[in-house]
Design brief:
The chain has about 160 residues and is mainly alpha-helical. It is built from 6 helices and no strands.
């Protein structure tokens, strides 16, 4: 009678000691890729703080998503940031965008489209970019402006 295969010993490289959760299951290349993406988004958000028309929040959300899978500690640091943490927490927890952020996004998109239209003078490009911006503006305007009071919005 042939010998049956023995289960891998605890701590061996053949198998995990316990069933890993999704975060632990990330392999090193995937984790490094997500960390790189998170840091890239963080750098773009930092540029967006000082460059008019460059978004900040969307890159912070991207960084938090990447860090959430690769390094929950880095995601927690973003959520706790004194300036940007509240915006990120409101988006992640409630899907909400503050009225001032909505205003800034809409004004920034409008000015960006106006500059593009005046500088390029290419009607087709202007129309395509404008259509995309209208879709994004509609999405922004349909998001809640803050956390909903308990009992509202849920059936």
């Amino acid at each position: 009678m042939p010998a049956e295969a023995e289960p891998p010993e605890e701590g061996s490289k053949e198998g995990p000691k316990e069933a890993p959760n999704e975060e632990r299951a990330l392999r090193r290349p995937a984790r490094l890729l997500l960390l790189g993406l998170g840091y890239l988004c963080l750098a773009l958000a930092a540029i967006g703080v000082v460059v008019p028309g460059m978004p900040t929040t969307v890159f912070l959300i991207g960084a938090a998503a990447a860090f959430g899978r690769a390094s929950p500690a880095l995601r927690a640091k973003l959520r706790a940031h004194p300036r940007f943490g509240a915006t990120l927490r409101h988006w992640e927890d409630h899907g909400s965008i503050a009225p001032g952020a909505k205003r800034a996004a809409l004004i920034g998109m409008g000015l960006g489209w106006l500059m593009l239209t005046l500088l390029l003078r290419r009607p087709l490009v202007s129309a395509l970019v404008g259509a995309c911006m209208v879709a994004v503006a509609a999405y922004i305007l349909t998001r809640p402006s803050g956390p909903q009071p308990a009992g509202h919005g849920e059936p």
